[in-house]
Design brief:
Elements: E1 2-5, H1 11-20, E2 25-31, E3 34-41, E4 44-50, H2 56-65, H3 80-90, H4 96-116, E5 125-130, E6 143-144, H5 145-167, E7 173-176, H6 187-195, E8 202-203, H7 204-211, H8 215-227, E9 231-233, H9 239-255, H10 274-289, H11 304-327, H12 333-350, H13 352-381
Helix pairs in contact: 2-3, 3-4, 5-8, 6-7, 6-8, 10-12, 11-12
């Protein structure tokens, strides 16, 4: 077993031999009450845990906060595979293959988060024990030591920038520019863009939770998108948006069968009683002529003389109406059309006797032309 004290310069010297010799084992770093364990498999970092805890319950809590599963009070899982089974039971992501890929991403990003948040303090004690370990290779990441050491300066720079951003955020709600989504090349930027592909705007904190990324990977992808103006500040709602939202609420009320009280006047025409409307129009027309209402019920008829008198009276009122409309252009179109409709009704009533006489004469002529030969033959025999 290798043991020692961490100094300002020897941390990388502790990790590199493990990587170069492709060793498997457990590196334990103790600083006060904090204990960090880093597992190596064939020289690569595969898991990081802190203070004798496992990542299983932390992982379930993270997935629940992301809104893609419902956390259940179940027996604590003992492996990542068991944790994945718990996740798949209530996952909102379908199909199962896609949900499993999302779970694997969450596992890897949780371990990255534990690794990048670890800062070896000068004076901390360490011990490395070589031993065989069982690794769920399909779930866990495989992080090369050189990659981790090379990324440490960038991690510090990105997290410093993110701290300044969170202290005085220039904006809090963002949205993706759809026309530029094909310009995304970075994997972690793609994960952020995938959350916003629907075109909706989102609070940055919610975006971070739903992306499932570690702090470093999230802010790296976030700043790449904002620097390229692919991710921009969401536009604020104006009055037009408020009006649209009111209309949307009204339509939802209509779908539910409950008209919105502020829009009762906008109800569909089919909801109005047609007979009531016709009755109202007829009475309005009759009142405009100062005449008795004309009914179409059985037993009540309009004689030809009454029709002619009504026709003459309506013509006089129509002339007066024309003069009134010239002086008062605000007269409604319904009143302008009313006299012409009455004239048509009365003209049709007055023409009925003439039509009947014409039909009788036509019938006599047709009978004459059809039966004239048999008629004369019969008369000759007589």
């Amino acid at each position: 077993m290798q043991t020692g004290v961490i100094t300002a310069d020897n941390f990388s010297q502790i990790l590199r031999p493990i990587s170069q010799r492709r060793q498997s084992g457990e590196l334990v770093i103790t600083s006060g009450d904090d204990v960090t364990k880093i597992l190596f498999d064939k020289g690569k970092i595969v898991e990081v845990t802190k203070n004798e805890s496992t990542n299983y319950e932390v992982l379930l809590e993270k997935l629940t906060l992301a809104g893609i599963m419902q956390y259940e009070d179940v027996e604590a899982p003992q492996s990542y595979e068991q944790t994945c089974e718990v996740f798949l039971k209530t996952a909102s992501i379908k199909p199962e293959e896609v949900a499993r890929e999302k779970f694997q991403l969450a596992v890897k990003e949780l371990i990255y988060e534990q690794l990048y948040s670890f800062k070896p303090h000068t004076g901390a004690l360490y011990s490395f024990e070589m031993k065989g370990i069982e690794v769920e290779t399909d779930m866990l990441p495989s992080i090369p030591v050189n990659q981790y050491l090379l990324e440490l300066p960038d991690v510090e720079e990105i997290l410093t920038r993110s701290s300044a951003f969170e202290a005085e955020p220039p904006f809090e709600i963002v949205q993706l520019v759809p026309e530029k989504k094909d310009d995304i090349r970075d994997f972690y930027a793609e994960q952020i863009g995938a959350v916003l592909l629907s075109g909706e705007s989102m609070i940055i904190d919610d975006l971070k939770l739903r992306s499932l990324l570690s702090d470093y990977h999230f802010w790296r992808g976030f700043f790449q998108l904002t620097d390229a103006e692919i991710l921009i500040q969401a536009a604020e709602e104006d009055e037009g948006d408020e009006e649209t939202s009111v209309q949307t609420e009204y339509m939802e009320d209509q779908d539910a069968g409950e008209p919105h009280p502020e829009h009762v006047s906008d109800a569909e025409p089919d909801q109005v009683d047609t007979e009531d409307v016709l009755s109202f129009l007829e009475n309005a027309i009759d009142e405009s002529f100062d005449a008795e209402p004309i009914h179409d019920s059985e037993g009540e008829d309009v004689t030809l003389t009454q029709a002619k008198e009504a026709l003459a009276e309506s013509d006089n009122q129509q002339v007066e109406g024309e003069e009134t409309r010239k002086s008062s252009p605000s007269t409604s179109s319904a009143q302008n059309r009313a006299p012409s409709g009455m004239n048509r009704t009365l003209l049709h009533s007055a023409a009925i006797p003439h039509i009947v006489n014409f039909l009788i004469l036509a019938a006599v002529l047709v009978c004459f032309f059809v039966y004239w030969q048999p008629f004369f033959v019969y008369m000759g025999r007589a």
